[in-house]
Amino acid sequence: MSTSSLFRLRLNSKERLTDPSCDDVVAKLSFEALPHLSLPAFIAGQCMRLNVLEQADLPPAYFAIASSPHEKNHYDFVVKDVAPLSHALLQLEEGDEIEVEGPMGKGFDLSQDAGKHIILMGVGTGIAPLRSVWLDIIKNREKYGKVSIYAGFLTAMHHLLTDELESLAEHDVQVSISLATGHNDWHGPVGYVQHALENDKPDPDNTVVCLAGMNVMVDACSETLQQLGFDDEQVRLNF
């Protein structure tokens, strides 16, 4: 899907995802369509270019859509306070409008992958485009084989979408959470997502992998996947 359009969205809700005591602020922003307007359809994993209208001096930035492609009334975005534009987005109040352009990017198109096993891998806010994918998958869970998610976060305070990830077991989706820095109460993997992948050694046969995150993470995971027998055609990126 290569076409895009320019339109406005209105902030409907804002939910902090990182622990309140965490210095890093990450929130899920949900924007709804303006009255009498419909939102463009998108492929899971695609992004939008967001612009804060009241701060024309700030250049727009790209954010992956984190909501289900089956949801017709709103878009979700996971935003980390790391740049002027993202900070401005996090300062918005319910009812404020933004200008958006999209959808853009190739996304993670699984329309031709019925019957295959699916692995989703992401770290930090890279979980955003993967959320769109897993929401799409559980809507059509019977179409796929084994579905596994490998998500990585810096610490437990940085762990995003905690309850939602835990609930995916109800849909026969296996979830592995890795923390770069563990603690006494943490009993999951400590390290990076590629280390958890190495330990599990998934069978590459009839399997596709969706990767999202920082370039260094994508490169490291791609190398691990190659060592496990995955070829380049089995590894998908959303850009």
CATH class placement of the largest domain: Alpha Beta
CATH T-level topology of the largest domain: Rossmann fold
Rg result: 18 Å
Stretches where pLDDT is under 50 for at least 5 consecutive residues are none
Q: Please identify the structural class as seen in this structure.
A: alpha/beta
Kindly describe this structure.
This protein is an alpha/beta fold. It is globular and about 50 Å long. The termini are close together. The protein has helices at residues 84-90, 127-139, 162-167, 193-200, 215-227, and strands at 5-16, 26-33, 47-52, 61-64, 74-80, 97-104, 117-123, 147-153, 173-179, 207-212, 235-237. The chain is built from five helices and eleven strands, in the order βββββαββαβαβαβαβ. The longest helix is centred in the middle third of the chain and has 13 residues, at 127-139.
